[in-house]
Structures are given as structure tokens and as C-alpha cells.
Amino acid sequence: MKVLVANLGSTSFKYRLFELPALGCAEGGREGERELARGGVERIGAEESRVYSTLGNTERESLMLVPDHAVALQAALAQLTGEGGAIASIDEVAAIGFKAVHGGRITGVVRVSSDVLAAMEEVSQVAPAHNPPYVRAMRLLSERLPHVPLVAAFETGFHSTIPERNALYAVPREWVDKYHVRRWGFHGASHRYVASRLADAVPKRPLRAISCHLGGSSSVCWLANGQSVGTSMGMSPQSGLPQNNRAGDFDPFALVHLSKATGKGFDELLAMLSEKSGLAGLSGTSGDMRDLEAAAAQGSVRAQEAIDVFVASVRHWVGAGIVELGGLDAIAFTGGIGENSPITRAAIVHGLEELGIAIDAMANAAVARAERSIHSKQARVGLWVIPTNEELIVARQTRDLLAAQKTTGQTHPQKGH
């Protein structure tokens, strides 16, 4: 079975085409799974966008104007079915899976329908960089490829196991029951993948682990036997840890003060919190950890300060996770920063030897893209670098939903908490 997975960012579109065995569950590694092709578009809306693809050992790249996600989607389909493409026709694709972000009242893995799209639009204000382009892409595909099933695998679904004590804000109950205000959590596909890999790598049961997805967008997830029991992101992907250009957790009453002091309206201030804050805003330069580390090495106080704030926030959530889990067996690092920044990894676990957490400096500094352990031999807690594979998780979930619906005939979406 061929499954195409679409992963949309605010200015990017990535796709991967998988060949999967027809049957199986959603977790763990499997024989017979193959990635047939990958590609995408970067800098959508810029004067020049980068369009790239990889098929086997052949890589292609070009620059062209891609004004929106609809054109990016067309470019991807052209790559897949054009000369030298992975498939002769889109008819070979059994389904298209979306790594959808926020469905509010609808979560889990569902077939895309008018009600699912409506639910996504209802919460677009708390996922402004993600939901609108996903809804547009889903509508476009449903019109142009009405015979191909579309599946939304919501990032919030993995966090449905979080107990209410860790999911509820202390707000009027009506906000929770009527308006679905709660800590939803995101990066679900990544944390699910990490949980499955840790289950294979660490034999201890019950397994108490913390998954650190650190990148342009970051979150920490507490894992009890592979299930999410707490996470740093809340009602929106704007919250939790500082992001590259998003503030993360922020006292909402500070907005009242800022509005009065600056004369700016709430919409303008919220835009600044989600576009001009985070590591970029704090450093005054870049939100990219590579740039910040280079600047800090050259003596930039602001760059180092931004790094320190980010590390302190991760440590805060790691510490809270140890208390919630009643101890710890493993920490996993994934995402662009988690996989590629030994400086950040070392800073996060620095000084925690009395908790059984100790890093092997040589293993941590080694340049490698493979999954690996980086804890010292004396450590009680395993430290792991696990390159994430969100798209593979979505492909498996898409395949399994279709198999389940074929058996039961049920196509209704799953409601939220």
C-alpha cells in the first residue's frame, strides 16, 4: 500500500511517499516499510522558493515562484508523477495522510470531512501558522482527487492519555466544557515515534521517560510506558518552551500593560509574540540555535542569554516530569536542535549526576545522524538521540485507519476531550 504524507509549515511544504505492508499497528519498526520518495518546497511566498525532491540516490532542486501551499501541492504531485517520478499516476496512492496540528473538538486519526475542516477552522486563531494552510490543502485535494481518501492525524491525539490534573487550566468550567480550553499538546507524531523507539531500546518496565522535541518549534513530553501523561505545550502551539520566533509561555496580563504602554492593540501584540519573539526576539538576531551558538562563542551576551533561557525552560519541564513520573529511566532528544546540538544536550543535563543522569562527552560530541545512546557508563538514566520520523508515524496511522474502517465500516471522526 502506498501512502503519501503531507507535512505543512507556515512557509514550507514537505511530503514523503511510503510503501507499507497492508496490515499492522501504528507503533514500532516493521519489515517491508520503504520510503519511495520525498521532497517539498521551502520559502513559500518568497520571491524565489526552493523546490526539491529525492528519489533513491537522485536529488533534484530548482528555484521558482511558489506563492502559496496550493501551488506547492501541485509541484509535489508533478514531481511524483512526472518523468522519473516514483509513481506513474496518483491512482497508485491508497491515501494521503496529513500531519494535522489542531482539530479542537476533533482529535485522533480521522477521515477528512466537512465537519473536520469546520473543527479545524474553529481553532485557527490558536494555530494561525498551521491550520489555514492545512485546510486549504485538504479542500484543494478533495476537489482534485475526490477518489483518494484524505486522513488527518492530529498531533493532539497522542496526548489524549494525559490525566486531567495535567491537562486542565484553572479557568471557569464553561471555558473547558463549551470552548475546549485545555492543555492539548502538540508534536504528537514525533513524541509517539520517540516513545516507540525507546520501548525497543530500553527493556525496563514500567518505563518512565521524557521526550524532548527541540527545534524551530519545541516541546517536552512525559511518557509513562509509552503514553503521554504531560506536555509543555498547552492550548496552542504558541505556548510552552521558547520557540525560534514565538514567546512560549507568557503571562496574559502583561498584554494589558503592554497595550497601555505602547498603544498597540492586542492583535498586533499577539502577532509580535508569535512572530518576533522567542529566541530571535530575545537575542535580537536569529532564532536558529546554530546561529546563536556561533554568536555566543564570539562573545555575544544576548545570544548566550537566549540559549540559557531556552535550556532553563527545558530543564524546568524535565524536572517536573521526574516528579510526575516518580523517577526516570530515559531522556530522548529529537528535532533539529535535539538531534544536532551537543551543546544544548549537555547544558540540559548538566549537574544532574546525583539524579543518575550523566552524559558521555565523547558520545555526545560525535557527529552522527543515527539513533544512539549518549549516557555515561555509570549513569542510571539512559540518554538517547533519536532522529524523529513523524511522517512514517502518520503513514502508519493512515494505513491502520483505512484497515479499521474497512473492517467496521465506521467513518465518523473521534471527538476531543
Chart the SSEs and their pairings.
Elements: E1 2-8, E2 12-19, E3 34-42, E4 49-55, E5 58-64, H1 69-81, E6 93-98, E7 106-107, E8 109-111, H2 114-122, H3 131-144, E9 150-153, H4 164-167, H5 173-179, H6 188-201, E10 208-213, E11 219-224, E12 227-231, H7 253-262, H8 266-275, H9 278-283, H10 289-297, H11 301-325, E13 330-334, H12 335-340, H13 342-348, H14 361-365, E14 372-373, E15 382-385, H15 390-408, E16 414-415
Parallel strand pairs: 1-6, 6-9, 10-13, 13-15
Antiparallel strand pairs: 1-2, 2-3, 3-4, 4-5, 7-16, 8-9, 10-11, 11-12, 14-15
Describe the structure.
With 417 residues, the chain is an alpha+beta fold. The protein has two domains: 2-153 and 391-415, ATPase, nucleotide binding domain (Nucleotidyltransferase, domain 5), CATH 3.30.420.40; 202-385, Nucleotidyltransferase, domain 5. Helix content is 38%, strand content 20%. It is built from 15 helices and 16 strands. The strands form three sheets. It has an eight-stranded mixed beta sheet with strand order 5-4-3-2-1-6-9-8, with helices on both faces. α6 crosses α15 and α10 crosses α11. It starts with a strand and ends with a strand. The relative contact order is 0.13.
CATH topology-level name of the largest domain = Nucleotidyltransferase, domain 5
The figure for the number of domains is 2
How many strands appear in the DSSP assignment? 16
Uncertain stretches: 24-29
Number of continuous helical runs: 15
Rg calc: 21 Å
Question: Which structural category do the helix and sheet elements fall into?
Answer: alpha+beta
| Largest beta-sheet details | 8 strands, mixed
- The CATH architecture of the largest domain can be named as 2-Layer Sandwich
